Structures are given as structure tokens and as C-alpha cells.
Amino acid sequence: MSPPPSKQTAFALRLPSFFISLPLSLFSSNFISFIFPVPSFGNTSTMVLSKTASETDVSIHSTFASRYVRNSLPRFKMPENSIPKEAAFQIINDELMLDGNPRLNLASFVTTWMEPECNKLIMDAINKNYVDMDEYPVTTELQNRCVNMIAHLFNAPLGESEAAVGVGTVGSSEAIMLAGLAFKRKWQNKRKAEGKPYDKPNIVTGANVQVCWEKFARYFEVELKEVKLREGYYVMDPAKAVELVDENTICVAAILGSTLNGEFEDVKLLNDLLVEKNKETGWDTPIHVDAASGGFIAPFLYPELEWDFRLPLVKSINVSGHKYGLVYAGIGWVIWRSKDDLPEELIFHINYLGADQPTFTLNFSKGSSQVIAQYYQLIRLGHEGYKNVMENCHENAMVLKEGLEKTGRFNIVSKDDGVPLVAFSLKDNKRHDEFEISEMLRRYGWIVPAYTMPADAQHITVLRVVIREDFSRTLAERLVLDIQKVVHELDALPAKLNARLATEKQEQVKNGTVKKTAIETQREITAYWKKYVTERKSNNKTQIC
Amino acid sequence: MTDPFATSLQRVFLYISYASLYIYSPRYTYFPTCSTAKKETMLAATNATEEHVHSTFASRYVRAPVPRFKMPEKSIPKDAAYQVIHDELMLDGNPRLNLASFVTTWMEPECDKLMMAAINKNYVDMDEYPVTTELQNRCVNMIANLFHAPVGEEETAVGVGTVGSSEAIMLAGLAFKRRWQHKRKTEGKPTDNPNIVTGANVQVCWEKFARYFEVELKEVKLKEGYYVMDPEQAVELVDENTICVAAILGSTLTGEFEDVKTLNDLLMKKNEETGWGTPIHVDAASGGFIAPFLYPDLEWDFRLPLVKSINVSGHKYGLVYAGVGWVVWRNKEDLPDDLVFHINYLGSDQPTFTLNFSKGSSQIIAQYYQFLRLGFEGYKNIIENCMENMKVLKQGIQNTGRFNILSKDIGVPLVAFSLKDSSKHTVFEIAENLRRFGWILPAYTMPANAQHVAVLRAVIREDFSHGLAKRLVEHIEQVLKEMDGLPSRLQHKKTERETQEEVFRYWKRLVDRKRAGVC
């Protein structure tokens, strides 16, 4: 029998509502013909014909049969004419295939995977402007809840239902600039009140800080005093940092999870030393903790570690929601200990389009998807979920570390405690260096960055693999295999030209006359080419066809 | 053979029998099953067994209070988390009906697809995502070209993509400040009192720039009936410490374009006299994608020699969702080298000049999509449509006879209007009442020296069609009519009797309405 009437009515009801829900501007003739593939007669076809001159009806061609895929792309000027949306989509989509795969990008802490449910929420909110707080009160409320939860996580001295002082940002860069600005302004106000000069502020950090600190210093005219690193010790030494502090120091910035090797700096020791110094000098130098990568690690894996507002001198903390906060790129947070640590004059109370909004941000209009996604993760995962995710990451980091150690070719530079990443350098990089390994790994799809350490340790080059939530054990094991393959391949290859010349020179100096004979050189080159050709052959056989 | 009437009759009978089936089917009898269902849910709530077989609204998660201050201890299923958040967000305004904002709320589904595909790409990983970087550069080139930057056919322009015009303005302002500092230092003059000249109608981010980067903000005051910066007064305010004059193409308040050409000419003359070389920045956040298409002959951009940088919001009439802005410099010399960071970040040298670092790359890709898809022709058509719809709305509002129109016909497509007689009711009440229909139409007061004027502002975006414009006018008329029946909120100097009558009338109306509509 035919379907029961209840279903029929439901269908009849659904059809018009489907049309209503469509954006009105979709009702172009193009779109109608797109949903109703009716051959176009009469008026419509002549109209299209007259518009596109000699071309036949554009919509019946497949995208790759159209002229749009063979025109060269506009790169300097906006094109004169419109093109169909399908073609535009295809062209851009196809060009973007050449970008690296974000999931295989082991260079970055930034989240590359979220649950499909959250993707849905993000897509729904993509047209909501975060600053229209009056229009989207719930989104604003969700932001405030996130701030509260993070402040509690960092043990901010708050009552049960007291609102925390903090703000959502685009990322840790904005967060750090806001925090730095607050310190600078507080210091200026203090100096002004004391009648002392306030034109030479400085900030003390380790040389391992992320570039945004340098940016803050240069853009806001604050001198950056860096504590130098040394080989084998790649974080800020608290004792040296405290030595650098003077009356013009607006704050000392400690890093929880150094970018280079994931190590946590000893904030507790720094706090204790600084408390002592403050007592002697009366300068009251505060601490900022840049917990961009470690802020969502330490509370779950090392709850006993004191690095946050439990330490009295820590006045503000920033954390990246888009790192281990497990949200896609575009969200950071900065939390202040209390209202007093955020100078009132930096807060803007604006009469923007009908409502009073207190704001302290560098950006204004931005999407609200990321804020909503952060709230999703916080309530979906809870303390338990975050803990499990971080433990998994740590486990997988250990798997990768042991795998690399087993190859016997690498020194591990990263520590077991800290942000789950593995930083490693070649034991012997005379013939081949880490940059070559990084390049070769690209062929397998892996993006593993190689970089040199900052000043005073810059002769050391490391490879760094960040373990994110979506980097599973299988992938870790596969990466070890691929690294082994690359190392073997490199062993068979001659050293890079410049490196070889350098060693030859050394040898010449040492032995006086030892120089490769022509036959040796020929052999090396043939070996190289032979290997290259056989490789390509086997590749052809197994993969390309 | 078959009588059509008979068959249709038969069909009617069939329907009736279906309907009776529907009514009498035991599945839909309410009471007997209800209690068992209730028991089941309660069981699930207490035991929490096999949660995935239950529907979301049968789970305990929808009746637990949502965590607001502390992260919850335990995880909850993803569909429950989705539903809880999704449902709360229903109470947000509808972005499409938000006429307060210039920011794009609709894009083609194809572009949505591209954006979602790129959402996990970090824009700063330029080495890893070279194509995304290339698309950004193409956008900069296209915009610079649109603004007549003096670059050769195949020469790359100097500019950068930002999160929005706020970041863009801070970067541009910083460049001006640094250039001024360098100049003063080489002249051996003090560098501690920089200032910037703007109209009082600027967006708040200029004030922010001034306060955060320690630059004095010299505002040209507005006056009633003239809501943009007066070029003459602006040039008067310029002194040797002025890092730049900021002109606005498309004032936030009325959408009016400021006369950048006159400003340029006056400033040229002053610069010749004083030798200060004060430059101009154009804040074209909303007008930058209007003027080139509708008024190609209007000179406001790099055609004027003193204009050194321009910012424009990609997420306004650039037709991309919130989160993209652009700033373009005339040429390399206008961007001091010491502000550009060359960083050895994770394996490659990257010159950058931004305040933000990690961010999504969806918006950049979407901007390139719009340029490629629409082209000059498409942008022109869309902006023309916006203008037409603006006129429809304006006409409708004028026809009510109750409003003064403050916005100009030439400028950004928006309608700003104030009540002719706001002695009884104010525009704020109209804004509030329009919310009931779903419209978000902001009311606000003008800045200093014109602050006694309160206006309503409707921004016409691409997705605000003729039909919606007509409908908005109808609703405004309805609100006016209702308000006329209501007592004024402003005056309280009434006799007791009058008040009683008013209250009585109000309640009667309320009760009447209830009878008619709500039940």
C-alpha cells in the first residue's frame, strides 16, 4: 500500500520549508536549473546565449569541460567577469590539493581534528560576528563560561560563582600582547605615581620564547632582555632571569612548554627567587606565564606541579585554545589573577550599536565559531576526557621516542615531562643533516620541521615532532619506519655538495694531498644514479601505475 | 472508462480511512505508553546503561545544569554536548536578520565547503601550506590593483591579510608612528608626543590604537547635519607631531564618504609650507569594496599622492564571513623595515607583519573564491543591488512620514534615520519593539557635539533582498502604530486619572491581543 498519510503530510510540509530556509539570493536562474535539471528552452537559453556569445549553455557542461579550467588564473588583477560557482570551487579546491595535509603536519601544535558534531556547530556559527555581543548574548555567555572554567583550572583565587577576569583572543599572540600591555601600563602608572621616569621599560624572558614576545617588545617599545641558553639546557634559568631584573622590568615571562623542546620552566623557583628579590628592592616585579602549549597539559598530567595562580607573583597566564585546548586555529585565552592586575584605562566601554560593551582586545570583528567549539570541548570532554587525551598523547610520544632511540642514530633533546613532543638531533650530522631528513620525509607526506636552536646553542639542529590528539600509535610506528627508511637512503647517498667540499678541504689540510681520484668520483656518481634509477623503477611498478 | 470524479472520491475515502487508522493506532494513544516511557528514562538516568540507544532528550544530560564556572569532572556523549550547546544558541539573534552589522552573513554553499575543508589549516604555517600563502598574496595584489597602487603589471604589492580592520589599522598606524619616529630622530627632534588626526566619527579601533600605542588622538568635532570629518578643520589640527591624518571612506554612522581628495589637496599645500610631509591613511573598512565598483571616478585611493596606506574589511563588502581584513601600502618605503619580522620558524624564513600569529586560513581562501567567482562584474552587480534595495527601504521609511533620513544616497548602502518627533517615544523603543519580529536594528546616539541625535541604522547587505526590505518597512509601520497607542515612557507629569486610563487601555489591549493571537 502507499505510505500512510502522516508521512505524506510531512513531506508536503517539508518541501516549502526547504525553500523558505534557502537564502533568498540563491533564487537565480542558475540555481533553479541546478535543482531542476530541465533542459532550457526559449527565453532562458537565448538569454544565456546572448550573454556568453558563442558558448553554448554553460550549465550543461561538466566543470572540466568548461573554458574556466583552461584559462590562466587571475593573480594580479580581479577578473573582469564572473564565473560559475562550481568552476570557482573546483579551481580553488584543486589548487589547494598541493598544500600539505594538515593532519600529517607534525610541525604545529595547532589542532587539526575535531568531532563532526563540533564541526556542525562551527559551521552553524560561522556567520556570527563575535563582537555583536548585544545581538548574540548566548555566544558572549559561552565565552564568559570558558574564561571562568580556565581560570578555575589555573587555580585563580575566585569564589564558587565569582566571574573571572579574562578574555578570548584570536591566539596566544594577541593574548600575550594584551597581558604585556597590562603589565606595561601598570608599571607606567606606578612609576608616574612615584615621580620616576617611565620611558625605558624592559621585560625578561628566556631566549627560547616564541617570536610573539619579540614582536610585543618591538611594537610596544619595550626592551627585551633575554636569558641566554646553553647546550643541554634549553629553557630560561630562573636564577639568571632574576639577576636581569631591574627597576624598569615590567614582568618576567616564564614559559610552560618551551616551543623548542616542550620543557616546562621552573616557575615555582622563579617565583621564590623573585619574592626574595622583591623584598630586598621593593620593585614588586610580577610574573607572566606563557602556557600557550602547556596550559592544558600540566593541570591534567601534573596536577601537583605549581606553576599557576597558586604562586603569588603570577599575575596573568595565557593559553592557546587551539593547541591542547583541542580547538581549530583561531582561539587563545588570557586570564588575570584579579581585577587589579588589569588597568581600568585599557578596558574600552563602548557604546557600539546600542549597548555598553567592556572590551580589551586588539581585534574587533571575528567569527564566533572557535569560542563555541572551545565550550563544546570543555563540557564534552570534561576533566576526565582532557586527562585521557593528554595521557594518550604522552604515551604515543613515548612510543615514538623509544622507536627513535632504537634506531641508534638520534639524540633525544626533549624531556619526558612536559608537552608531548619529541625533539631529536642526529648523533652524526657530518655527512647528512637534519634538514635533509626533513626534506626526504616530505616524500612520504610527513611534515617534520628541522630548525636551529636560538643564539648560544645555534650550532644544534633539531627535528621536532609534535604529538597531537589525532596522532595515533599506528601513525607513530609508521613514522619511525619511514624515518628509518630515510636514514638508510641517506646513507647510500653521497653527502651534499657543499658539505663534501668542506670535508674535502679538511682532509686536504690534514693529509696534505689526499684528494679523490677521478675514478672514485665517477663511482660515487654512478652509485647515486643507479640507486636513483632503480628506485624510480620500483616506484613505477608499485605505486605510480 | 474510469470516472475521474469517482477516483478522486475514492481517494478522499482512502485518506479518511488512513486518518482514522492514524487516530486509532495504539502507537499514538497517549496515556498507556507514557508511564512506561517515563520509567525507562528514569532507569536510564539512574543507571546510565547503554546511553547510545537512548535519544538525546531522554538522557540525563539535558536535565543536569550546564557547567558555568568549572570544567565538569566527567565526559558526556558528543551528541548530548552538541544538542545542549546548539539549543542554547537558538536564543542568539539570527545573523541574517541582524541589520546592525556590515559583516557578511551569507556565502555560497560551494564556498562554505571550501572553508570547512580548510578549517584545520593554520595560516602561519606558510612553509607547509604554500598554496594558501599564494592565495593570500594574490588577494593582496588584486586589492592593491583595485585601489590603484602604483605597481607594475606583474609586480607584487605590499600588503597583508589580517583578522579584521582593527588589526589592519593598528598595523598601518604603527607603520606611520615608526616612520615619524625615524624621521624625527634623524632630524634630532623629540619623538615622545605623536598624535593622529581623525574625525570624531571614527570606529572605536582608532581610539584603541591611540591608547594602546600611546599616540594622542586629535578628533575633529562633528556638528548636527554634518557627520563626517571636515577636511579643513582636520588640516588645521595637523602639527609637526602628527603621524598621519585618517580619513574614512564610509563613516560607520551614516555611511558617508569623506572628501579625501580635498583633504589631500589641502594637506599638500600645508606640507609644502611646513615641510612636515604628513601622510594620509584611508580607513575604507566598509567603503573599499563599494567605491571602486559604483564610483570608479571618485578619487580617494592611491591616485592621491599623500595616501600611503588603505585598510579594507574583507568581511564587510568583500563578502566573506567575519575574520578577514586587509591593509595595503603604497610601496615598500611606507612600511618601515624594522617592523617586519623575518623569522626562522620551523624551518623557513618568513617575513611577517601581523599582531596575530596562528589563525585559520578559511577566510583567506574564501576571499580568493569571491574574487575569482564574482570578478569585477559580480561585485558591481551585488553592490548595485544593495544600493537599489537601500533606496526601496529609504523610500518606505520616508513614506511613513515620521522619520528624517540622515544617510546619503552616495556612500555605503545603509539607511540611518531618526524620529522627527521623539518627545513621546524614542528610536530605542522602536529598536526594542522590532526585536519581536526578529529584526535586530540598532539605535544609538551620535558622538560628541551631535550626541542629542539618536538614530536607527539598517545596513543593507548582499543577502537583504527587496522582499525583506518591504517587510521591514511594514514592521516599522506596525511598531509605530502600536507605540502611538502606548503611553510615553519619557513623561511622568500626568494626572492620576490619565495614568489610570492609560494603564487600563494598555491592559485591555494586552488582553484583547491574547484572545486573538496567542491561544
TrEMBL record, chain A:
It comes from the Eukaryota. It catalyses: L-glutamate + H(+) = 4-aminobutanoate + CO2. Belongs to the group II decarboxylase family. PANTHER family: GLUTAMATE DECARBOXYLASE. One of its GO terms (biological process) is L-glutamate catabolic process. Keywords: Calmodulin-binding, Decarboxylase, Lyase, Pyridoxal phosphate. The modification N6-(pyridoxal phosphate)lysine is found at K323. Pfam families: Pyridoxal_deC. GO terms for molecular function: calmodulin binding; glutamate decarboxylase activity; pyridoxal phosphate binding. This is Glutamate decarboxylase. Its EC number is 4.1.1.15. It comes from Gossypium raimondii. Gene3D superfamilies: 3.90.1150.160, 4.10.280.50, Type I PLP-dependent aspartate aminotransferase-like (Major domain) (3.40.640.10). InterPro entries: Glutamate_decarboxylase (IPR010107), PyrdxlP-dep_de-COase (IPR002129), PyrdxlP-dep_Trfase (IPR015424), PyrdxlP-dep_Trfase_major (IPR015421). Its cofactor is pyridoxal 5'-phosphate. One of its GO terms (cellular component) is cytosol.
